Amino acid sequence: MPRQDTLELALRHLQAGRSAEAKRLFKAILRKHPAHPDALHYLGVAAFGKGNHKIARRLLRKASEARPEDGEIHYNLGVVLGGMGKTEEAVAAYRRTLEIMPDHAKAPNNLGNALTELGDIDEALLAYRRAIDNEPDHPLAFYNLGDTLLVLGRPLDALPAYRRALEINPDIAEIHDGLGTCLMALGQTGEAVAVFRHAIGIRPSDGPSI
Hints:
The protein is 76% helix and 0% strand. It is mostly helical.
């Protein structure tokens, strides 16, 4: 079977959740082509999905060396590094993603989260604003923007960010919590209590959560 056909079949297996079949085919490609960037990349993604973070990091680093201008590889490497608690390295990976793919939908929000972990709140704020520019209907980017503004003592500025997040997705309890906290900071206790109650009502359901 030609290599491209093998790769496409492996990707179909991976997308369908058949990770064992996908891994077998990716490894077959790597036996013949040890630096094949796609096989390294997707095998790394599969390893991460199974919780094998160190293996995923090794494979994704090799993939990034084989194809250094592939922003998606750097993005997934950032996700793995973040999952391993290597926050500074994750920041570097997300920044590299955005150098290559300035309009990447997810990297700015993840970058903001990593910067927040490092205590770089001003830079995190810029990252969340960029996330919104890149994906205007990203509820978690608005939620994170609201949280960051609240940390900076700017609840009045945070309020529209929380409200916009809920317009996009009203079923995430944590966003209601953020809005409630913001309202409390603004002295709007009655509305805050109603928002907190709504959050409690969402949590027992199967609605999405952060």
